[in-house]
């Protein structure tokens, strides 16, 4: 039996064994994730492109050349390249807008393929609807041109106004051109020639990195993967896969591991949103929640002299009513030690705690040392 046949046989048996284990333990299969969903392969990524260009054909909604000198300079330069001399003349067109063009160059995009581009107004243009982007080179971080964009814009918003009213919906100064750029330069990256790969975890964690390395080693049958740090798993291409890095990645990205995450409470104070992980634990703690509310209302009354009286004046007599609510009905609640996330939420809900107050309570529990989790405030 050749080494290739043996490798395919081992792959088949491993997948069959994994399927039997998953069938016998459906809960674990639901909790696990594929390696391809929790890691990125170094070198297989998008690259950001950006360029500066002009959009023409606008219906009087372009840049005001007096307020946007860069638009005027770009327009004069473009016309000169086309053989039209406009220097020394006063340009008053309002149908041109300077824009920034951005795009993502996919990994391994070949020359001649098309990619989408986003166009955003740079000056004081009010609407890009109906405009056409002229030829715009798109450059990478190294200053090299990798694509060229041109085409008609499609905007997701609109603006309309009359003499007495105006309406704007969405962002009419931002548009998109589907397949609006052509790739002119390919990235020099040969995946098949690599002898070592690095897998980067999207959520760094030491335990998860070790589990990924262990799952790969168990599948390959040799010690080929090592966890260097919480983010990186170093993978050496085994001899059986020489020249077949794509086949190796295809096999290992389907393996399933159980990610392990840090107990964390994420709080967005601006919106009052609270997200807590399943491993959040709280030691025994007593919680009392209540506020002192004082309501002050004014009920002024008018005091007048007796009828036909020759003395006295009509005056306003102030009347103030003060109501103090100490919320005496609120009681001290006790949360038992090492409670789970569900029990914590049920306990806080039983106290009638609002999301805003819950944020303050969680921060106070953390300060007391009873919250066994990290708090991250956005």
Automatic annotation (TrEMBL):
GO cellular component: bacterial-type flagellum basal body, distal rod, P ring; outer membrane-bounded periplasmic space
Keyword Signal recorded: yes
Localization per record: Periplasm; Bacterial flagellum basal body
GO molecular function terms noted in the UniProt entry: structural molecule activity
Signal peptide as annotated in the record: 1-31
UniProt xrefs under InterPro entries: Flag_FlgI (IPR001782)
Principal subcellular localization: periplasm
Keywords: Bacterial flagellum, Cell projection, Cilium, Flagellum, Periplasm, Signal
Superkingdom classification of source: Bacteria
An individual GO BP term: bacterial-type flagellum-dependent cell motility
Record text on subunit structure and interactions: The basal body constitutes a major portion of the flagellar organelle and consists of four rings (L,P,S, and M) mounted on a central rod.
PANTHER family assigned to the protein according to its UniProt record, in alphabetical order: FLAGELLAR P-RING PERIPLASMIC PROTEIN FLGI, FLAGELLAR P-RING PROTEIN
Family as reported in the entry's similarity comment: Belongs to the FlgI family.
Known role: Assembles around the rod to form the L-ring and probably protects the motor/basal body from shearing forces during rotation.
Protein's name according to its UniProt entry: Flagellar P-ring protein
Organism encoding this protein: Parvibaculum lavamentivorans (strain DS-1 / DSM 13023 / NCIMB 13966)
